[in-house]
Amino acid sequence: MWLFVQLSKENRYRRWVPSICCAIIIFAVSIIPLQNRGHTTMGIGFILRMDIILHAVGYTVLAWTIVCARKVGLTDYGEILLILIFVTVFGAGIEGIQAIIPTRQSSITDMIANAVGATTIFIPSVFDCVRQRYQ
């Protein structure tokens, strides 16, 4: 708690508080022992794994909070790519940690969902490029 109070007092670090909180929440939720090995399904005419959607949403939020903290513009493709790689590696690391927790399991589909969530930071750049090209 002391760290967050100190970070929020200093202006240059204040913008990183949402990113740090999001990463801590994702980490904490990912290592909590669960029944069913963490795979929640919902039958709506077909089997939908709800955890895949939660992975994508969680890593979308993490990627966007980092983009906002870094103040990345639409054309900063190098920065966006670094954020994408960082968030994807963070997700893969958490999946690796889950492999050693007895009631959790590591999953390639979860890693893919993490990466898909992280790639949403490219969507505004794509729309901006298309808009500029056809104006």
UniProtKB/TrEMBL annotation:
The protein's superkingdom reads Archaea
UniProt entry keywords in alphabetical sequence: Membrane, Transmembrane, Transmembrane helix
Q: Where are the transmembrane segments?
A: 16-34, 46-68, 80-100, 112-130
Q: Per the record's keyword annotation, is Membrane included, yes or no? A: yes
Q: What is this protein called?
A: VanZ family protein
- What organism is recorded for this protein? Haloquadratum walsbyi (strain DSM 16790 / HBSQ001)
